[in-house]
Amino acid sequence: DALLLQLTNTSAYYTYLLLLLKSKVYFAIIAVCLLRRTAVCCNGERS
Known about the structure:
Elements: H1 2-46
């Protein structure tokens, strides 16, 4: 019973960790895309 509880807690922790990592990756990708888009926009306006 205690082992099952520990296993449930561990799986929940890893699921949370995975979701957090996933959201960080998505945020990083979006940030890079936005920065790249603004850089292209600014370069286009200058020339």
